[in-house]
UniProtKB/TrEMBL annotation:
GO cellular component: cytoplasm; nucleus
Keyword terms: Nucleus, Transport
Name of the protein in its database record: Importin N-terminal domain-containing protein
One term of GO molecular function: small GTPase binding
Primary localisation category: nucleus
Composition bias, Basic and acidic residues: 739-754
Domain (Importin N-terminal): residue spans on this chain: 42-109
Repressor among keywords: no
Biased composition (Low complexity): 1069-1085
InterPro entries: ARM-like, ARM-type_fold, Importin-beta_N, Importin_beta-like_NTR, TPR_TNPO3_IPO13_2nd, TPR_TNPO3_IPO13_4th
Pfam families linked: IBN_N, TPR_TNPO3_IPO13_2nd, TPR_TNPO3_IPO13_4th
Region called Disordered, residue ranges: 739-762, 1066-1085
Length: 1238
């Protein structure tokens, strides 16, 4: 095909298209003798030609060609399936009946060819007959799918639908033609039988009919017609069941193998049962098909010689159990289920001998090869039937009446005990459902609960689970096989561990703990010093018991935090008695001083670490149950194993959990946290400990010990100072090493005559920056942490660890920037450090002297490197140090300075006595910015409580000056971004990361301080007077135009925040002047009105200049308001509408549209929205009625929002209308794009 000039497919003659398609298929399926370019051209042709009306004729011609190969035939059948699904309206009404007859003739012709060629039936595999098209069976099955789809399209209560294209209006005119096709089933069967089509394909058609009736890909079928056809099939269910039961498998032996026909019967029956679940159970009981399925299963998968027949019988029984599941609220009632259960349960129990026989290796034929676990295929199939039956009849298991419950539970126990984990895992969902339904509750009328009634079975189940956790012997494999085995075992351990928790929820943790302790003592009864170099299998049982103990740990009650005279419950007493004994036993075997420690297998040592970590709260003494402190024994074990390559990750995780749970690792006279940190840091630098494992331990030290220390010293870290001093010394230790590395790098660069740093030292710099970030991030106590409440009052006037760390590290950080500013990875780590320093600094006022140099530093980095990570860090200056209009913190957080930068209280500090309200100019009263920061929806009582407190400004802190600095930061950062990075529309597409970070950064100003920004603009104090217009213009350019999900989300977040800033935010019951002197609610409302006017003036400003406008199909309206609505409605019909409209994610296109409707005045909204809808959404994607519906919904929502109506309900309603409109537009856009009309 290469080098040939062919006419466009839309005007190509069908004969020419057939020739081109045959050539493309020859190239595509030959695989040899053609270049890569020819193969790509052939592939592109085969993908595109299916979109055109000539494809009907071409596909039929390919099937009619007796010389077509099976792959070509399969491709032609797949083409017809695509046309029936998506392009049904291309068929004229008079062409439908001939097309149907032609399909039947093709089935009959190729069935004969297949039988004459000696090919066995049932080829292709799978419900759809496979997708490779490697045999005639796959092609014939696909033709049956096409015929079933045709039946759904035309078999609508005896009516036949066709369509003609109205080229003048771009619509499809629907034509209804009367036909004699009154019964789909009768017509299909008679039609196929009249052409001598084998029974195999009639059965496959019956299998596909209910599937196609529920197929949403049939785009030409309306929902009422689809539902009507489903009801028509539903009425035919008894006839279908009777027909399937009447098929004589032996009579058709000459046309199709009996096993193939039997498999088709099972599959067809399963489909009808699955899709139409209200078939009377008596019809199934009286039918012989289920008995045939039980007979097939009783023979086993390997013995009957056809595994697919065995699997189809299993699938049929599973479909029956799922369809008649009496455990679901919407399922069949228990009384109606009893006749079917009385038929199925005995037949299922009769499969138990077959299951037991499958466990023997002799059950496999010689051709299958050796298998230690017997016929696993048969075992898996029967296990699935056992489990599905138990799940379906779960209410019978919970009933107090005798229904062979214990026999069924022992059947499931037998499944769980299968030696092959892939088989025994099938039973685990049942135990979970039993635990969820039964639990430890007592039965009705005070009868025993499930756990008490079946305690002996559940105890056996626990032992069976431990046996399944035993590590299998090594098979000698390596490489990918060994890695795959490790992943599979890890998954199995997690699954069986969850089952241990299910058993605990049924019988309680105490019996489980006693049983595991007994098993563990039994496996450790042999003295471990006598172990030979190759340990005996006993360690595997020990490891399995330990993993079960690890899984049980979350179910155990935690030790009481404080001594109490109240009696403890049984489970707590048992845990405090048994767990320390088990931990002591483990530590005595695994401790570095123990003679048996060197001979412990690595896997057993790793599992011991897991147990120590999970049971860490039981290591300290808890009198009177346990008086021995096990921490001094656990600490050397974990530290010693940190140096082991195989055990280091688990030891690090366990050490972290011990530190977090206990707050110490040894007694008071042992290693303090700073010394321990130094040892860990030194080992990591020496390569003895990986960086990830070091991070785990350091986080445990900081959060478990340092964050609990007092600010001024004392406690366990008294010899090294308080928390702040310890953190400073840790930072100094890392900073000193970091300075040495950077200094050596600078010296080397100077010797080499320039260049930038890199290589091994760059990795060391990145890791040290990560260490510093971890220290700053974790060392500060959680604001409402485990000690309760904030700690700001304890160190009022003190210096936060973050503040001191940044002060001491500024020269080193500057040197890192100078040396590595061309390395994005290093700069990202550096910016991440600043981000966490901003977030963890307490009080915020202590950080004010550092703000100016840090902001200068970050702006310099943004201007010189043009990396979005600097903008990311700068945005945290606004969120952490700026006021927030909508706050969720209470007044206590505001007074203490706690929270995440959401209160103007960061600038305020409580002083003793009743202070006066004074502004920055010395006059009484709040500045407008402060009143705006305190005003928020739902503020009510909290606002009055806050305004009633005695606040005064901290000495040397001026709110207006700080706000001015923040606004100047917006201008300077915007100037850098728009002058060097986002200069035109093409830059927006090339730098989506910068677009994302910039709009998140800009949105914070409208969330935190919109009124000061408005006042600065109105006073013409901005360096760039048109910055607000530029922000909106840039958002309109990037919205929907950018094909980058995260950047689009950022722009939508900015637009939603910007539009929300103009909406009233005070509660209806605003605080009175007595609560806030000279700060009446009227002044705040005037600010709100001013914001509304300012935002509307921005929406009336001119649209984008040509330099900022990327090439588009539609020009933008001249003003920003209509341009914004145009972009919003254009996004509804775009390719990415599914992600943008999804209101389960925040932000979303519906949210922006609703905010715009609330902000824009109703007259302008009606005018702009109508014009935007007409211009943005073409007629081919939405009808005028659909546009009218969306327009009315949006305008009505805007009016209701201004009236203060049911906003939540109205918002959901407009979301539903807009989402439905977008879905329709997307479907039509996809369909018309296939045809080249868009």
């Amino acid at each position: 095909m290469a080098g040939q000039t062919v006419p466009p497919p839309a005007r190509m003659d069908p004969a020419v298209m057939l020739t081109q398609t045959q050539k493309a298929l020859s190239i595509f399926y030959s695989g040899q003798g053609h270049s890569r370019e020819e193969f790509k051209e052939a592939e592109a042709w085969l993908e595109s030609f299916q979109h055109y009306p000539q494809a009907w004729v071409v596909a039929d011609a390919l099937i009619s060609d007796q010389n077509s190969s099976p792959p070509v035939l399969f491709f032609a059948a797949k083409t017809l399936q695509t046309k029936v699904y998506l392009d049904w309206e291309e068929l004229e009404p008079g062409m439908i009946e001939p097309f149907k007859q032609q399909l039947v003739r093709h089935l009959a012709t190729w069935s004969v060819r297949r039988r004459e060629g000696g090919e066995s039936g049932g080829g292709g595999g799978g419900r759809r007959g496979g997708s490779s098209g490697g045999d005639l069976g796959a092609f014939l099955n696909r033709l049956c799918v096409v015929l079933a789809a045709v039946a759904v399209q035309v078999g609508r209560e005896g009516r036949e639908y066709g369509g003609k294209e109205d080229t003048q209006h771009g619509r499809m005119e629907v034509v209804v033609v009367d036909t004699n096709w009154q019964g789909v089933l009768t017509d299909c069967v008679n039609l196929l039988a009249s052409h001598a089509v084998p029974q195999e394909h009639i059965l496959h058609l019956l299998e596909e009919l209910p599937v196609e009736a529920h197929n949403e890909q049939l785009t030409a079928l309306s929902r009422p017609d689809r539902q009507a056809f489903r009801e028509q099939l539903k009425a035919l269910r008894p006839h279908v069941v009777a027909y399937l039961a009447a098929v004589d498998v032996g009579k058709e032996a000459g046309l199709s193998p009996p096993q193939v026909l039997q498999r088709k019967i099972f599959r067809s029956m399963g489909r009808w049962v699955s899709y139409y679940r209200d078939l009377p159970p008596t019809d199934l009981v009286e039918n012989r098909i289920l008995l045939d399925a039980f007979a097939v299963i009783a023979q086993g998968a390997a013995r009957n010689g056809h595994e697919r027949l065995f699997q189809s019988a299993i699938d049929l029984l599973i479909d029956v159990f799922v369809a008649y599941d009496c455990s679901l609220p919407e399922g069949i009632s228990l009384d109606a289920c009893l006749p079917l259960a009385q038929f199925l349960v005995p037949n299922v129990f009769a499969l138990q001998p077959t299951y037991l026989a499958s466990l023997r290796p002799s059950s496999l034929p010689p051709s299958a090869g050796p298998s230690p676990h017997g016929d696993t295929d048969t075992a898996k199939g029967i296990c699935m039937v056992f489990v599905e039956m138990a799940l379906s009849y779960l209410p019978l298991l919970l009933a107090p009446e005798p229904y062979q419950q214990e026999a069924l539970l022992r059947l499931l126990l037998l499944v769980t005990s299968h030696p092959e984990p892939s088989v025994s895992e099938y039973a685990l969902p049942f135990w979970y459902e039993l635990a969820k339904a039964g639990g430890r509750r007592a039965g009705d009328g005070g009868s025993p609960g499930v756990g008490e009634r079946y305690a002996s079975i559940l105890q056996e189940l626990l032992r069976a689970l431990v046996e399944r956790m035993v590590y299998p012997p090594q098979d000698g494999g390596g490489g990918e096989r060994a890695a795959d085995g490790t992943r599979r075992r890890r998954r199995n351990l997690m699954s069986f561990g969850d089952a241990v928790k299910d058993v605990s929820s049924l019988i309680g943790p105490s019996p489980c703990l006693h049983a595991l302790a007994h098993l563990l003592h039994a496996t450790l009864s042999t003295p471990t010093p006598s172990l030979p170099p190759s340990p005996p299998p006993s360690w595997r049982q020990t490891e399995a018991c330990l993993w079960a103990l690890r899984s049980l740990a979350p179910s155990l009650p935690l030790p009481p935090s404080l001594p109490s005279s109240a009696p403890l419950d049984t489970d707590t007493t048992t845990a405090l008695t048994v767990v320390p004994q088990l931990l002591s036993l483990l530590l005595s075997q695994a401790s570095p001083s123990s003679p048996s420690a060197p001979s412990l297998p690595p896997l057993l040592r790793v599992t011991i670490h897991h147990v120590l970590g999970r049971l860490a709260p039981f290591l300290p003494p808890h009198p009177p149950s346990s008086t021995t402190d096990l921490l001094p024994f656990a600490y050397p074990l974990l530290l010693a194993d940190l140096g082991s390559p195989a055990a280091s990750p688990s030891a690090a995780r366990a050490l972290q959990e011990v530190l977090l749970a206990c707050g110490r690792v040894t007694g008071p006279d042992s290693l303090p946290p700073l010394t321990l940190f130094g040892q860990i840091y030194t080992a990591s630098l020496a390569g003895q400990l990986s960086f990830g494992n070091e991070t785990l331990v350091v986080e445990g030290i900081l959060e478990g010990i340092v964050a609990r220390m007092d600010g001024e010293g004392g406690g366990e870290g008294g010899r090294e100072g308080g928390r702040e001093e310890v953190v400073q010394r840790m930072v100094g230790m890392v900073g000193e090493h970091l300075g040495d590395v950077v200094g050596k790098e600078q010296q080397e660069r100077r010797r080499e005559g320039g260049g930038e740093g890199g290589g091994k030292r760059q990795v060391m710099v990145e890791q040290d920056l990560e260490r510093l970030t971890t220290i700053i991030r974790v060392s500060e106590p959680r604001l409402m942490g485990r000690r309760g409440g904030g700690r700001e009052g304890e160190r009022e006037g003190g210096t936060s660890p973050a503040v001191g760390a940044v002060q001491s590290l500024l020269p080193v950080l500057q040197a890192i920037y100078d040396e590595y500013k061309g390395k994005p990875d290093v700069m990202e780590k550096l910016c991440r450090f600043f981000k966490h320093a901003f977030r963890t600094a307490r009080p915020k006022t202590a950080f004010y002297p550092l703000l100016d140099p840090l902001v200068r530093f970050l702006l310099q980095g943004l201007a010189e490197t043009r990396q979005s990570s600097f903008l990311y860090s700068i945005s945290y200056v606004v969120s952490e140090f700026g006021p927030r209009r909508h706050s969720h913190n209470d007044s206590a957080d505001a007074r203490a300075g706690n929270g995440s930068g959401q209160q103007v209280g960061w600038w305020l500090e409580r002083r003793g006595g009743a202070g006066a309200w004074r502004g920055t100019d010395g006059r009484r009263g709040w500045p407008a910015e402060v009143r705006w920061g305190l005003a928020r929806p739902g503020g009510g009582e909290r606002a009055r409580r806050m305004w009633g407190q005695a606040f005064s400004l901290r000495a040397g802190t001026k709110i207006r000056e700080l706000l001015a600095r923040l606004l100047l930061l917006l201008e300077e950062a915007s100037q850098i971004v728009f002058s060097s990075v986002l200069r035109n529309g093409e830059d927006f597409t090339n730098h989506p990361d910068m677009v994302e970070e910039y709009f998140y950064f800009a949105s914070k100003f409208f969330a935190h301080c919109p009124v000061p920004l408005m006042n600065r603009c109105r006073r013409q104090e901005m360096l760039v007077p048109t910055l607000p217009q530029t922000l909106l213009q840039s958002a309109v350019v990037g919205f929907v135009t950018l094909q980058h999900k995260d950047a689009q989300r950022a722009i939508m977040h900015f637009l939603e925040t910007f539009l929300s800033a103009g909406q009233p935010s005070l509660p209806h019951s605003a605080p009175t002047s007595s609560a806030a002197p000279n700060g009446s609610s009227s002044s705040v409302l005037s600010d709100t009105a001013g914001m509304q006017d300012w935002i509307l003036s921005l929406l009336h400003s001119p649209s984008l200049p040509p330099a900022m406008t990327p090439p588009e199909q539609h020009p933008l309206p001249p003003t920003l308001g209509p341009a914004l609505l145009f972009k919003l409605f254009h996004g509804l019909a775009g390719e990415s509408a599914r992600e943008l409209v999804n209101h389960s994610e925040k932000p979303c296109l519906c949210g922006v549209l609703s905010r715009a409707a609330e902000t824009i005045p109703p007259p302008s909204l009606r005018e702009w929205a109508y014009a935007a809808l007409q211009a943005a959404v073409p007629e081919v994607l939405a009808t005028p009625q659909e546009k009218q519906e969306v327009w009315e919904a949006v305008c009505h929502f805007g009016e209701r929002g201004r009236e203060g109506g049911r906003e939540g309900r109205d918002r959901r309603e407009v979301f539903a209308v807009v989402g439905k409109f977008a879905e329709k537009c997307r479907e039509r856009e996809r369909k018309t794009r296939r045809k080249g009309r868009v």
